[in-house]
Amino acid sequence: MPFAEASPQQEFAAATEWAAGRALDALTGAGGAAPPGGEPPEPRALVAADRILGPDLFAPGLLTGRPTRPETAARAAEALRLFAPAEPTALTWRDRATAELLARAGHPVPVPEPPPAPDPAEDGWQRWSVRMSQLCSLALPTLEGEVHARAREHALTLARGTTRAVLRRDHRTATRLTRWLAWLQSTGTPPALELAPLLRHLALTGDGTARSALDLAIARRLAAA
């Protein structure tokens, strides 16, 4: 009986998990070993995965002080050139952050100007919380911009969105918003929620994905800072 081939979406999702596992290993000191049983993805899928992870490819270096591998930066630059959207969207903020980190690494890549940062006054606090969760990879040391200013201005709204996600058992959104709260604390802004019990809860109720584990590990590092 022949096996059905994976769809491109499944292939890219698997590659993203693999790449997130590598970043998590680099952050936690496991040496960047591949996740258990994880074979390296095809180059095309890995480049697409790097486009999705964006700034998080640089998270281990930013949080530990160890330099990002040159091949990682080169692949991230290729991903941004290949997959940058023709029209700017809210996620263009993620591309802009990736481009900033790439420029520091000696790989300048032009990206379109992003639209105005999401605003809870326009989106409503629930939708804004979801959009901020989608931009959680901007919650890293040394990154600053309009999205970060919104996070500082609406720390209580971020806490409200986090609480809602926890109560709804939406682990991925809760973890991503907690990362923003940890970033706020690391930059001197009170996060409006006590982070230690929240981080412990998320560690116990995780969804088992490498991406969520990476977000949680980054949040822990930020909270400790």
Question: Which structural class matches the secondary elements?
Answer: mainly alpha
Low-confidence stretches: 31-37
Could you say which overall geometry the principal axes of the C-alpha atoms support?
A: globular
Number of domains: 2
Count of strand segments: 0
Share in helix? 55-70%
- What radius of gyration results from the CA coordinates? 17 Å
Largest sheet: none
End-to-end Cα distance: 54 Å
Number of helices: 12
How much is the average pLDDT? Answer: 90
* Proportion of residues in β-strands: under 5%
Question: Concise description?
Answer:
With 225 residues, the protein is mainly alpha-helical. Helices cover 63% and strands 0% of the residues. It folds into two domains: 7-115, no CATH class; 116-225.
